[in-house]
Amino acid sequence: MKGWMGKFKALFLLSSLALFLTGCGKENLTALVPKGYGAKSSMDLIILTTVIMSFVLLAVMIFFVIVLVRFRKKKGQEDYIPKQVEGNQTLETIWTIIPIILVIIMGVPTVIATFDLADASKADEHINVDVTGNQYWWHFDYGEDEFQTSQDLYIPTGEKVYLHLKSSDVIHSFWVPSLSGKLDVNPENENTMFLEAHEEGVYWGKCAELCGPSHSLMDFKVIAVSPDDYEQWAKDMNDFDPEAKPKDTVAQEGQELFEEKSCMGCHAVGSSPVATGPNLTDFGNRTKIAGILEPTKENLVDWIQDPEKIKPGNEMTGKYPSLSDDEADKIAEYLLQLKPTDVAPESASK
Amino acid sequence: MSVAATQKKGFGAMLWDYLTTVDHKKIAHLYLAGGGFFFILGGLEALVIRIQLIKPENDFVSAGLYNEMITMHGTTMIFLAAMPILLGLMNAAMPLQIGARDVAFPFLNSLGFWLFMFGGLLLNCSWFLGGAPDGGWTSYASFALTSPGHGIDFYVLGLQIAGAGTLMGGINFLVTIVNMRAPGMTYMRMPLFSWATFITSVLILFAFPALTVALFLLMFDRMFGSAFFDVALGGNTVIWQHLFWIFGHPEVYILILPLFGLFSDVFATFSKKRLFGYTAMVFATMLIAFLGFMVWAHHMFTVGLGPVANSIFAIATMAIAVPTGIKIFNWLATMWGGSITINSAMLWSLGFIPTFTIGGMTGVMLGSAVADYQYHDTYFVVAHFHYVIVGGTIFGIFAGLHYWWPMMFGRILNETMGKITFWFFLVGFHLTFFIQHFLGLMGMPRRYWVFLEDQGLDLGNLISTIGAFLMAIAVIVFFINIIYTAAKGEKSSPDPWDGRTLEWAVETSPPPFYNFKQLPLIRGLDPLWIEKTEGKGKMTPAEPLGDIHMPNGSILPFIMSIGFFIAGFGFIYHGDHAIWYLALYGGMALALGCMAVRSLKDDHGFHIKKEELEREAD
Asked: Using CB atoms, which residue from B278, B377, B463 is nearest to A209?
């Protein structure tokens, strides 16, 4: 008996310790600290079901422990033959009825929440963004405002933003754990969901459906800013002039190289309906390069020169002539100066 | 073959015996050996996965290789380890439990095994031929279509061949149980394991064709230019998901129900009590199987099927908790008031109860669709299905091996090593998977080659990897135990556990190849127990001693499977070079030729003469 209890206790202690040390995970990434409408809705159900099921587990464990303590074969009773009980109707009815009641208690709020989150009838009154999943990056098209971004999705706080998800290649899944549960991004049909952030912040987003070697590197961000900031940001993005020359000469040369080396064939700077590669209009404000690297110039040069090493299986590798260190450096300089607006990720954490 | 031929033989003769055998007990050995081999393979793949995830941004394996590892780990464990080991246990015990001399179609039984084995080998050949499949064990269509190389082709052909073998096994068991129960063995007197085998076979019969269809469609898309799933040409990828899960959800019940049956037998035997609520247990099993076909879309809550579909499947999923709960409480009630012996078989069965209850608990939580939007495709799901599949199926397999080892091999597995295995495995298991519930909710999706630094996921993953190594130690000890037992293990009587059911009523351990000299007369549930307490301690024969009709062995199933194996390569490579058509047609000709031989040549089997049986009794 000691062996059983002792080992379970040790296990329990170790697990609780581990939990305590890691807490609930990284803020703005973890689903355990919801900061948006959808995530809150999921969390309520997670708590409800966990509590109910924990009681069931507790009941089973109490029953289990009593059985083990009381009914182990005792010394001197080796030949004891227990009474052969066929069953007990009352008991069996009880443990059929109680679970049915519990299922109803969990089922009703589940159905209500499912219909609530799926309701897109008022989408017209809100901001709508077309989201395209690509191997291994995300494209965001603010249709009615005629500008696009990639990787960083800006939304205003306290308002529903409707996302229309579609994939350009294989199935992806759009997941921002702190704001909302996930929805698949299918190639054949458009799926609609909404995000509503309760507070400002930079939220981690991830792809949650196996889509290739770099599936785990398909991170993105949702940047929730105040409604005022959002308006400013949208205005600045709209006003962006793609023809504008950068101030310093290095960046100007970079801009020329950007055209010469056929970067422009896939990457738009400024509004463009085509999105073969990520739109780079606000590249200088990006939280990450390629979704995962710190936005430093060295990282950008590395990325431009050998993207395969950083994101295996990506579509950029081999699509352009090789670049010298100097050329890559100039292009990087140009890209990092693309800051059409003062509303940046930092604005979300004022 | 005569009785004398079962005596000691040379290695060559033994090999030939196993290649040609149609005896359900030897086919069980083959299934256990084949399944055990793939279990080790799948385990090594699991260790590679855990080593890669021991720290953030690790580069132990490349991204492509990692995806191959996760795909092959899942595929191997489900199709090539768990399934065949279960079929092995069913083969070993079920015919004995219902008082039959063999299964209904011994030839098909052998063919089923060899198809599984060569299907599995074909799939694993991909490792050496340009890369294993990398689309995950679910191999979702859009990505599976674009995956370069032949990996996915090996997946399609390998599973198609192995799956055909499983389907045969299912049909065979169904016919056996319907037709070959001993006199007096009514349905409601069958041991729970035989009941579970019966119901599982029904599941196999209805679920596997869906997989067959899905695999054929994928095969046509990849090899013959059709476009069932190709969106650019008007196909639809969601159809794959439906087909796969219409098979895939019943599949997880195929994996667990036989063990529910086994645990029922083990709890009753080692508590010295009749199973509590036998009728409820049988109907709960049926209900679980039925509901198992009604819930496949809960794997697809995030696909965007809409709130109506999501709600219906959410409620149906939660409803499964009711019959499962009945089972858990009835098992506990079986032990209540009993006289419990705790040995290795019982330890695994006892360990199953809390472990599986946690798995069932998270299962209900996953059934709540809106909560699932967070759980889906994260480590929470990984934790959940390991709690049910390892905590149910693998714990059950270990329990079954300890319980039936004496019946299968005539020796008792070493108890000390059995207990070491159990405790290492139990602790390692919970260490590995408990923390993963939280990793998932903390934002770690499944099938992630790396997790990034500074996302709060480091410690959890480290603990998980440590746990995996404890499980590896446990499995190593178990295999040492098998070798030790084979060499020096304690010889067993035919009834070492004071058993209640017919498999313990045979005359020798292991049983003679004809099982029962005279078919026994069954007087109720737990027939042997009835005779022990109310009769003369052994079964009363239901027939006079007479000739026993037995089937002849055959090498045809082995050759036929080789034919399909060769044809598999032909299908995979025929697009690369025309020479491969040779393999395609050659392989198919070999397989079909064997079928023709089998169909045209009469084989009436042989009879063991009454005199021979009498002589043996002396």
From this structure: B377
Mutate to test the interface with A, among B302, B420, B433, B447 (most CBs of A within 10 A): B302
The full set of domain ranges for chain A reads: 26-118, 124-350
Domain ranges of chain B: 4-554+603-617, 556-602
pLDDT per residue over A210-228, tens digit each? 999 999 999 999 999 999 9
Q: Do B62 and A23 touch (CB under 8 A)?
A: no
- Asked whether this chain's domains A26-118 and A124-350 adopt the same fold, the reply is no
pLDDT in tens, B72-97: 999 999 999 999 999 999 999 999 99
With CA atoms as reference, the chain B residue closest to A1 would be: B342
Which ipTM score applies to this complex?
0.92
Contact check, Cβ <8 Å, B371/A209: no
Q: Are B480 and B413 in contact (CB under 8 A)?
A: no
Q: Which residue has the tokens 């009753």?
A: B268
Residue B200: half-sphere exposure toward Cβ, Cα within 13 Å:
30
pLDDT digits over A121-154, tens only?
999 999 999 999 999 999 999 987 789 999 999 9
Give, as one character, the DSSP assignment of residue B215: H
CB-based contacts of A268, cutoff 8 Å, min separation 6:
A148, A274, A275, A279, A280, A281
CATH class of the structural domain B4-554+603-617 = mainly alpha
CB contact under 8 A, B361 and A189: no
Q: Find the closest chain A residue to B67 by CA distance.
A: A213
- CATH assignment of A124-350? 2.60.40.420
Q: How far from chain centre, in Å, is Cα B269?
A: 23
A26-118, CATH topology level: Helix Hairpins (1.10.287)
Residues of chain B numbered 57-116 and touching chain A (CB < 8 Å): 62-64, 66-67
Q: Given pLDDT bands bounded at 50, 70 and 90, which one contains residue B293? A: very high
